[in-house]
Amino acid sequence: MDISLEKLHSKKAFICDMDGVIYHGNRLLPNVPEFVKWLGDTGKDFLFLTNSSERSPRELAQKLERMGLNISEDHFYTSALATAAFLAGQCPGGSVYVIGEPGLVNALYDAGLSMNDYNPDYVVLGETRSLSYEKIEHAASLVMKGAKLIGTNPDMTGPSEKGIIPACRALISPIELTAGKNAYFVGKPNPLMMRHALKKLSCHRVDAAIIGDRMDTDIIAGIESEVDTVLVLTGVTTLETITNFPYRPSYILDGIGDILKETVVKKEVR
Questions:
Q1: Which CATH superfamily is domain 2-30+40-78+188-210+223-265 in?
Q2: Which of 19, 20, 50, 76 has its CA 20 to 30 A from that of 165?
Q3: CA 97 to CA 64: how far, in whole Å?
Q4: pLDDT tens-digit series, residues 209-236
């Protein structure tokens, strides 16, 4: 059975995940240039909303430029920026011990937080390839001494050119288990991220749709914010794993290029 995408096409703004939707690692996914062109040709507002904390908006814009897409940095919002805004609101001028990449460190600096590896207010962890036993040991020690543990996002895994790889929640779990404390995660599906996105777009929730590849972050974030949801099957979630969740997206598409169609074949989820 075919379903019409007329309602989706009428949306004024699109909030779009990146990993697994736009690219895998450094490889652009099919029909992404055509989708970006469609956004411009139809006058849609859009925001790339990523749970990845590694890169700044400028770096993300440069990454897409290397792939052939020219998109200004004001179209990007990351979990690093959301985490920095949250901590600045909770503890203005506070200090942090950070395990993460420059995109996270710079966002925290820009929000007025200082680096402190002795007695910080917070221990903050984001995606990184530089995690070591020594950093886990030190972070757990700081949390046991009273620092609050913050994760930039709750993703357990993420897609890459090599397949599925560990993400923030998997990396932070040794600290949680050692210190006996649960982290607070700022990224999707935390409503903070969706509120930031809608505010940045100056858009009401009924006029927006979120496009993502994860049921446990992108889709539930949209559902809990009452924003229409589009699941694409180019990332983490498959038709089979959708059944693991008690909720369903508004649309299920093979990839982001399907949005350009007038109708699509309805996916059967059992």
A1: HAD superfamily/HAD-like (3.40.50.1000)
A2: 76
A3: 30
A4: 999 999 999 999 999 999 999 999 999 8
Residue 232 in contact with residue 253, Cβ under 8 Å?
yes
CA 168 to chain centre: 11
Task: Tell if the pTM clears 0.85, that is, is over it.
Answer: yes
Residue with token string 């703004």:
13
| CA 143 vs CA 120, 122, 167, 169, 238: distances in Å | 9, 8, 20, 16, 37
Question: Where in the sequence numbering do the catalytic residues fall?
Answer: 17, 19
β-bridge mates for residue 258, sequence order: none
Would you say domain 80-185 falls under CATH 1.10.3470.10? no
Looking at residue 265, its amino acid is V
pLDDT tens by residue, 76-119: 999 999 999 999 999 999 999 999 999 999 999 999 999 999 99
Mean pLDDT across the stretch 194-207? 93
Q: What is the rounded CA–CA span in Å between residue 222 and residue 225?
A: 5
Return the amino acid letter for 108: L
Q: How far apart are CA 148 and CA 145, in angstroms?
A: 9
